[in-house]
Amino acid sequence: MKIVLERRYIILTIKATTARDLRKNFKQIANDVSDYNDIVFITRPENKNVVLLSEKEFNSWQETNYLLSTKANKEALQRGLSSKHSNKILSPEEWDNLVQTND
């Protein structure tokens, strides 16, 4: 199975494999995950499935979770996305001020 999702100019490929095939082809699968940001669902008995993703992708997910972890950050991000001036790049100080005024 292969699913391709477009995510802001990045193509995210999701593949599925069995644990047995992963063991046989680990080097190639690991290279694809690392080089192309593929995500691999590894199916296991009793639905004890796992997901293999690159460190870069994992860090990106962690950062997103962190940024969305507080109400103030969520609201600030939403305002930034919906603002007609969203092309403006904020300095770290401007970002801190924006978040602090909404706490």
List strands and helices in order, with pairings:
Blueprint: E1 2-7, E2 10-18, H1 19-24, H2 26-36, E3 39-43, E4 50-52, H3 55-67, H4 71-82, H5 92-100
Parallel strand pairs: 2-3
Antiparallel strand pairs: 1-2, 3-4
Explain what you see.
With 103 residues, this protein is α+β, with helices and mostly antiparallel strands. It has two domains: 2-56, YefM-like domain (YefM-like fold, 3-Layer(aba) Sandwich); 68-100, no CATH class. It has five helices and four strands; from the N terminus they run ββααββααα. The protein has helices at residues 19-24, 26-36, 55-67, 71-82, 92-100, and strands at 2-7, 10-18, 39-43, 50-52. The chain has a four-stranded mixed β-sheet with strand order 1-2-3-4. A hairpin with a 6-residue loop joins strand 3 and strand 4 (50-52). The longest helix has 13 residues, at 55-67. The termini are far apart.
Brief overview:
The chain is α+β, with helices and mostly antiparallel strands and 103 residues long.
Can you give keywords for this protein?
single chain, alpha+beta, 103 residues, YefM-like fold, 5 helices, disordered N terminus, 2 domains, 50% helix
